Amino acid sequence: MALKQVAALPFIRHPDGALEVLLITSRETQRWIIPKGWPKRGIRPHKSAAIEARQEAGLLGRVGKKPLGSYRYLKQMSELKTIECTVTVFPMEVEAQQLKWSERTQRQMLWLGPEQAASQVRETELADLIRRFVETPR
User: What's the CA gap between 61 and 94, in Å, rounded?
Assistant: First the structure.
């Protein structure tokens, strides 16, 4: 049985209509991901995704209530144990970034066009979700 996580797909829209999405590195493996984590008890999933984006990347903005979709990955819990997680992804239009946030020294960040971002993530389902996001009218 897969455990459930939530994530934000942070994006900005430029005046010419072009979109960029934010990728961050995971703490342990340093692979490119989007802000994600465990849902908070008693908090709606899209709000939990917003909390993760603030903690992991210092982002503030509007998170959509309707998910974009989901993807699966294997989370390494220890050298001997991995678990399957299903991550529900919510769009987040970034309005600001805090100067300081809890995980700022533990992660790198990179703003990329959607196709470039999709090519950087290891999870095929996440890459497909990023590509489909661009094709969806906002």
Answer: 4
| pTM, full prediction | 0.92
Unique residue bearing structure tokens 């982002």? 59
| Residues 107-129 pLDDT 10s | 999 999 999 999 999 999 999 99
Both tokens assigned to 66 = 């309707």
Domains of the chain: 3-135 (3.90.79.10)
Q: Are 57 and 109 in contact (CB under 8 A)?
A: yes
SS3 31: coil
pLDDT digits (tens, 9 = 90+) for 20-74: 999 999 988 889 999 999 999 999 999 999 999 999 999 999 999 999 999 999 8
DSSP letter at 102 equals T
Contact 37, 84 (CB under 8 A): no
Helix (H, G, I), strand (E, B) or coil at 87: strand
Residue 16's contacts (CB-CB under 8 Å, 6 or more residues apart) are: none
Instruction: DSSP letter for 103, please.
Output: T
